[in-house]
Amino acid sequence: MNSNLQLFVCGLVFAGLTGSLSAQGDLGKIQKRSYPFEEAGKDIEYALYVPSDYKKAKPAPLLVLLHGLGSNPHQVIRYQGITEEAEKRGYIVVAPYGYNERGWYGSQGKGKGGLLGGRDGDPENLGELSEKDVLNVLGLVREEFNVNSSRIYLAGHSMGGGGTIHLGAAYSDIWAALVPMSPAYMGSHDILEKIIAPMMVVTGDQDTTVPVQMVRPFARRMKETNPKHVYKEIAGGNHGTTFYRNPDLIADVYDFLDGCSLQVEDGDELPQEPLRIFTNKSGRTIEARIVSSTGTKVTISRKDGKTFTIALSSLSEADQNYIQTWIAESATEP
User: Which domains does the chain have, with CATH numbers?
Assistant: First the structure.
């Protein structure tokens, strides 16, 4: 190893994760976690459930679950049936905060959003941070656990349903299926053209918070766009107990997810990433390409095939943004 390369690699120190717990000691329990969100300048909480029979050797499906306006990760992961079905079916479930209880996951833009968006004291880029928080937490879980990359699902209730639609389109290659529940989505229905994964939209016909009259036109356009999409309208259903006290509905949601996965044809190979000049915070450079990344670490490969795993936080801001975009757009782990 030449001296410049040795200095580059030695100068990259792995970043520690605040609040990371021993997975093996907390199987079968809802875990309250946090991590340092650098751009936000503070630790952000998320909730995690890992089934009791999880084994590192076996890839597990992952459900990313988004809470509604005014709610939080610890409430949505406790909807009746969420962890019970995850335990039976071997799912990992993670519920990000989306920065705070009103970030909208970027579905109302990068700023504070409209009337139901940010408050005084919230950052001006609340929507951007909310969206990035979801991606950060996804990366953390994929780093720590053996996640089946062909079975990563996104679901959410109310504001989280709107976030599911937005993120389902923005990062369409990640998700094997989407489940927006009573979705508070206020954007153009043209977004459906960007959604690849099968989608199950669920709403109640007596919902007064997100009226069914808002959801039905979206559902009609959805079915026209892709016949694999499913619309479930619950007679007498409301905005609350229909979802958080309805384990039968949650079982139906998991049944839908179980039937969906990203398909990779036999013999297909992932395209090789282009070479790039990576720069660390000391100004040292190396020409390499991304092999894999899981949120806090990245593995890169030189032209000669020599690989190095380094801390994402030790790279330049431009390189970090490049890698975060790559993570979001990657459908499978290398």
Answer: 18-258 (3.40.50.1820)
